Amino acid sequence: MPIVDRNSRYDMSSSHLQRKPRVKPPALxxxxxxxxxxxxxxxxxxxxxxxxxxxxxxxxxxxxxxxILDQDIYFAGSVERRAQELEEMFVREDxxxxxxxxxxxxxxxxxxxLDLAKIQAHPKIFVGYSxxxxxxxxxxxxxxxxxxxxPMAAKDWTHENGVDFESWQAALSGAVPWDxxxxxxxxxxxxxxxxxxxxxxxxxILVASLGTSYEIKTRETILFLEDVAAKPYQIxxxxxxxxxxxxxxxxxxxxxxxxxxxxxxxSQDYTxxxxxxxxxxxxxxxxAYGLRSGHVTSGNITLPFGVQARLTVRGGQVGLRILEPxxxx
Length: 329
Prior knowledge:
Blueprint: E1 4-5, E2 10-11, E3 18-19, E4 33-37, H1 45-57, E5 61-63, H2 79-91, E6 97-100, H3 116-120, E7 125-128, H4 133-141, E8 147-149, H5 165-173, E9 178-179, E10 187-190, E11 192-202, H6 203-208, E12 221-226, H7 232-244, E13 253-257, H8 272-280, E14 287-291, E15 303-305, E16 308-314, E17 317-322
Helix pairs in contact: 7-8
């Protein structure tokens, strides 16, 4: 009788792990309502308002619950408030997509509090990054639906040129196939071509999942890794932890983010690319560096987690193509 690990959503009955297709949420269209949530750190009213105005200018109807401005130490209110807010946004029929206000810290508190069955019954577009990585991967793995690593309401949406609208539109409206506009800043670290499920997020949050009931599932993925203000040796340490934990086994490709402010000193005589290439450059998979998603200087790219993608690295040329729609067509 086949053995099925329902939490990981892998069929273990064959020698080749088969990932079950993830549920795709309904598309986001102009005029649709977008619910703003704060699952982690507390937020400033001015930044929240600026983000809502920007979303409305983009053609959506942004709204939030009054409790979003609650504060408990550095959290956006109690864990009960944050969990209830998130569940309500999933259940409400008048919400088409859910965009996190910001990251910071605290989303991991929600993992044991959320009613996952209730959320699974109402799959919706869910967007965020940084600390929100713990929810993106939880909903993708245990919840079984596509999630979106992209711009947040009280962060990127508040800045001019903070959002890459091309990828936002392509990911949330169901374009297929589409090429992520990587830009000249993206470089190749190891040549190759591979297809897999796009997945990942903030490196420090991914590593923090190891040894818990919410441990990340990286096999057969194009693994996206990004972080901010981490020194090169800390990036090295986290990558080695992933490697020693077996989380780089079965990965089909790796692409790093912009890695904003991830330097030891301005005068260091090595690059972060050299540091990460020592660990992942000889895995036999394509490796690239510099994708602007998550913590970025500008133009935050939206990446759909849970869909098939192709990573191609040839010399200095890098391509990332999304091969299937991320939402219901």
